[in-house]
Amino acid sequence: MSTTLVLTVYVLTFSVGLPANAFTLAVLVAKAWRRPAAGPTVGDLLLLNLTLADLLLLLALPFKMAEAAAGMAWPLPATLCPVANFCFYSSMYLSSLFLAALSIRRYLGVAFPLKGQGRPRPSHALAASAAIWLLAGGHCSVVFVAHYHGGGSDDSNTKTPNPNLLTPIDSRINPIGPVDSKTSNCIDPKISNPKIPKTPYPSSPTLPRCYDAFSAAQLRFVLPLRFEFFFVLFLVPFSVTALCYAGLIRVLLARPALPRGQRRRAIGLAVASVVIFGLCFAPYNVSHVVGFAHGRSPPWRVYATLLSSLNAAIDPLVFYCSSGAVRRALAGVGGTVRAWRWGEGEVGGGAERRLLGHGLGQ
């Protein structure tokens, strides 16, 4: 895979995701500010947390861009490696869990519209949100443990960060970057071999790699945890989301009297959520299972990691389908832009506008 492709995808995700998520955050905060007595709704709280999860990934993307620009080597201080990866991976699992929570809320709201006492309250949403942040953050803190896990050195008294997370490995395992399998010592970079030069990165020979190489001890620690991630942080929320939206669509089909716009938005929300799970989350999490079965990460895992970043750019579709405030604010922005362009035309193209108005009978 070309590092240019990696950098391009990250830049596009950042360019689309940052303004869209910042806009949603501003709309939700403004709505809560205008109604301090009523407080935010359950849906607003879940959307707010989903927005913050996306912004957490977008916060990590500049670090990943710098890594891609350096040929998938790590040009930044070593302490930032686990921090950037913690933000990146936590955001993915936070998004999957909050999408599942949104599907539950949407299903209950449509299937049981009159049973207000049984529906979630804002206090329940706050408690659930705190539990989700703790669950995802606690799981993804494994990047810090792995970073300092002493699996890459024969010296058990080593207290420095594990060098295997910042050293090159075989290009068959990590196909990104200018790794030459003929010149890379993938067994132990500290062993001198006259037949194997110790300069595996011609473009950046002095830069290490971040969270890319694992020793055997680290793999014994990381792979079972990833396997557990697949079930707890992906399969369970994906199953809940699929079941809730299947039930939601069934309810909508049984109630033809519901407004057409509401039906379209509900179906759009279901489709967007399934696309996010299928396109962004599924490949990366399936690589956990494959890696656990084979004892090492599959070579296509780098592609799956790249796809996982796209959720920050696709989530705005969920915001649009879920929040009337976001739709109204977006419509207001569109109206302002059209009015501005119309006014600009009056200044720069008044003659053409007058001819058009005359032709339309204005």
TrEMBL record:
The main location is membrane
Q: Can the keyword Membrane be found in this entry's annotation?
A: yes
Q: Which residues form the G-protein coupled receptors family 1 profile domain?
A: 20-319
Regions that span the bilayer: 6-30, 42-63, 83-104, 125-148, 229-253, 265-284, 300-320
Q: Which GO terms describe its biological process?
A: cellular response to fatty acid
Task: Please give the SUPFAM superfamilies that the UniProt record associates with this protein.
Answer: Family A G protein-coupled receptor-like (SSF81321)
Kindly list the GO molecular function terms attached to this UniProt entry: G protein-coupled receptor activity
Report whether Transmembrane shows up as a keyword of the record: yes
User: InterPro entries in the record, alphabetically?
Assistant: GPCR_Rhodpsn, GPCR_Rhodpsn_7TM
Protein's UniProt name = Free fatty acid receptor 2
